[in-house]
């Protein structure tokens, strides 16, 4: 058995420098689109009546907890609640994990090794599977339950398909990395 304190993986292993540049350009573009969407939404909010929840930080923070974190709008719908919980928790944990990996890679101290790395990988795998299940449940619900309250646009399917493909390719890349770097069990 290998020493658990030496467990780690190479970040950007077998990735050409030009691919790293493309990766960081895509990240910058994604962040730019996100910022643009938030600014556009805030602009719409500001056009509304004064005194709305966006002006009172206490109401805004309470609604953030209720609707974003606790998923209040879907908590009574059993399948909807489950799939939203899986999608939301998977997305948040995978985003945090990606951010931690970036900090370890670009930061002054590389902490992505040993027991931390092993727990990190297990957590990312568990929440990655949860995210896949959430996507599949959302697809099932749209395909077979077809409730009128759900939107049935092509963009819903496109988004779910993209999210699912990103997560599945993450697992595939991880499996290929382990295969080609002869990871010890």
Plain-language structure description:
This protein has 185 residues and is mainly α. It contains five helices and no strands. Helix 3 packs antiparallel against helix 4 and helix 4 packs antiparallel against helix 5. The longest helix is centred in the C-terminal third of the chain and has 32 residues. The protein is globular and about 55 Å long. 7% of the residues are buried.
Strand content: under 5%
Query: What is the arithmetic mean of pLDDT?
Result: 82
- Order of H and E elements: HHHHH
Main sheet makeup: none
Count of helical segments? 5
What would you call the structural class? mainly alpha
Radius of gyration: 20 Å
List low-pLDDT spans. Answer: none
The oligomeric status of these chains comes to single chain
Work out the number of β strands.
Answer: 0
- The proportion of residues forming helix, as a percent range, comes to over 70%
- Form type: globular
How far do the termini sit from each other? 8 Å
Task: Describe what is shown at a glance.
The chain has 185 residues and is mainly alpha-helical. Helices cover 71% and strands 0% of the residues. The mean pLDDT is 82.
Structural descriptors:
185 residues, single chain, 5 helices, 71% helix, globular, mainly alpha
Q: What topology emerges from the helices and strands here?
A:
Blueprint: H1 17-47, H2 57-69, H3 78-106, H4 114-145, H5 154-180
């Amino acid at each position: 058995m290998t020493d658990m304190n030496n467990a780690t993986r190479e970040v950007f292993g077998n990735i050409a420098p030009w691919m790293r540049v493309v990766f960081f350009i895509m990240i910058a573009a994604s962040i730019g689109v996100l910022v643009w969407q938030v600014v556009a939404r805030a602009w719409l909010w500001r056009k509304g009546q004064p005194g709305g929840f966006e002006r009172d930080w206490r109401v805004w923070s309470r609604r953030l907890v209720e609707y974003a974190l606790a998923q209040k709008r879907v908590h009574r719908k059993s399948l909807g609640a489950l799939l939203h919980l899986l999608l939301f928790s998977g997305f948040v944990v995978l985003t945090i994990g990606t951010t931690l990996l970036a900090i370890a890679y670009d930061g002054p101290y590389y902490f992505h090794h040993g027991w931390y790395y092993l727990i990190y990988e297990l957590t990312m795998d568990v929440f990655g599977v949860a995210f896949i299940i959430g996507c599949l449940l959302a697809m099932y619900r749209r395909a077979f339950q077809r409730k009128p309250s759900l939107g049935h646009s092509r963009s819903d399917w496109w988004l779910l398909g993209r999210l699912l493909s990103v997560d599945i390719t993450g697992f595939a890349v991880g499996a290929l990395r382990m295969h080609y770097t002869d990871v010890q069990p």
